[in-house]
Specification:
This protein has 13 helices and 16 strands. With 398 residues, it is of the alpha/beta class. Helix 1 links the parallel strand 1 and strand 2.
Length: 398
């Protein structure tokens, strides 16, 4: 960046070129807006974050015109075998993509249109107001924009400087582990994608996901344990032994395996930003609200943020002068965004209670849930397609 950049004005300045910021810049750039995307990392570093795309996320990427880029960079699989206590629960038959987070960000950055200016540097200061915003990038210069989008993830520095507080709803809500596997005595696992659910509430394990990603077999273990729990230390020191002891049905379902790298760990708070209705700046993704990794809703929520902000609100905001807090508030009050935000928090509570709550009500809930899944799977095997037809009939309007 040169000093001449200080004279350049943009419609939107996006701080943070991770997943949410990069996709937002792509959508806005394709729509013809003048966008500058700012990040301190020219090559995005490996992070233990999103590693699997599935469910409604596939359709959201498709709607944004980015699914082909995801599919090209990822490893596709169309069936997941679901196991509990060594017994088959059912099979999930739907398209999924396994991809490491830095590879996903790299794939999305490759989709940035030439109209988006990608600038590498540390944002040192933000000056916001009802008309134009100033973003200071280290000693390199200042860019001006009508709107600043903060896509800075869970970093608090810029939010704090703007006076935006972060309310922790549930500290250390979940603890997730990631590692690579390879089979012992076989060229490949018989089941490329497998989910093994926890066997006892006392174990604090929601489920173990095993799937192809990054040219290997990846495992994500979702737990509701304290990071100070002695089990955590034992697992990180001897992960294969402790995992086999805690999930005794795993070896029968997967076959013998070894863990080929160090175990990564991600301790997650559930938190939401407060006091966000500010002139000239809007927060998306984890910068606004975090998600429970076990619920698998983080990507769904950030894509909803992007769809509503970039396709609905920003075009309306830029069509008239000013960028007041009143305009910004419309995004946070958006019914579809609010419904997704509420869903994410409700599902986070549900996954935790389903996993570790030992009250009679939740014990019954677990029994009913897993019994129903086994019965539906057996019915579907006896009469293939019957369950899908019944669900289709139920979904039709009266």
């Amino acid at each position: 960046m040169t000093a001449g950049l200080q004279a350049e004005d943009y419609d939107i300045a996006i701080v943070g070129a991770g997943l949410s910021g990069t996709i937002a810049a792509t959508v806005l750039g394709r729509a013809g807006y003048r966008v500058v995307l700012i990040d301190r990392h020219e090559a995005f570093p490996p992070e233990f974050r999103v590693e699997k795309i599935g469910g409604d996320q596939v359709e959201k990427f498709r709607r944004l015109g980015l699914l082909d880029a995801v599919a090209e960079a990822a490893m596709r699989f169309d069936e997941i075998v679901n196991i509990r206590r060594g017994r088959l629960l059912d099979r999930t038959r739907a398209t999924h993509y396994g991809i490491l987070y830095d590879e996903l960000v790299r794939a999305m950055r490759a989709e940035l249109p030439s109209s988006v200016r990608l600038v590498f540097g540390q944002v040192g200061d933000l000056a916001t107001g009802p008309e134009r915003q100033q973003v200071t990038i280290g000693k390199q210069g200042v860019v001006s924009a009508r709107l600043v989008v903060l896509a800075t993830g869970m970093g608090d520095v810029l939010r704090s400087r703007l006076g935006i507080e972060r309310e922790v709803i549930h500290a250390r809500q979940s603890l997730t582990f990631g590692f690579n596997l390879q089979p012992v005595g076989a060229p490949a696992f018989a089941r490329p994608a497998l989910t093994h659910y926890g066997e006892r509430p006392a174990d604090g394990i929601d489920y173990l996901n095993i799937f192809p990603a990054g040219g290997t077999t990846r495992a994500n273990l979702f737990t509701f344990r304290e990071h100070t729990d002695p089990w955590v230390k034992a697992f990180r020191q001897a992960p294969r032994r402790v995992l086999a002891e805690t999930l005794p049905g795993l070896l029968d379902a997967l076959g013998d395996f070894e863990i080929t790298d160090r175990v990564q760990m991600w301790l997650q708070d559930l938190a939401v930003a407060r006091g966000v209705e500010r002139d000239g700046v809007v927060l998306i993704g984890d910068a606004f609200q975090t998600s429970c990794p076990a619920a698998g809703t983080g990507v769904s929520r950030l894509l909803t943020d992007i769809e509503r902000l970039c396709l609905v609100h920003i075009p309306q905001w830029l069509a008239s002068p000013g960028m007041s807090a009143e305009k910004i508030a419309r995004f946070y009050a958006d019914p579809q965004k609010r419904a997704m935000d509420d869903h994410v928090l409700a599902l986070a509570r549900y996954r935790r209670n389903l996993t570790i709550d030992t009250s009679p009500a939740w014990r019954l809930q677990r029994q009913v849930l897993y019994t129903r899944r086994r019965l539906i799977d057996r019915l579907d095997r006896v009469s293939p397609g019957l369950v899908a037809r019944l669900r289709s009939l139920k979904a039709r309007p009266a």
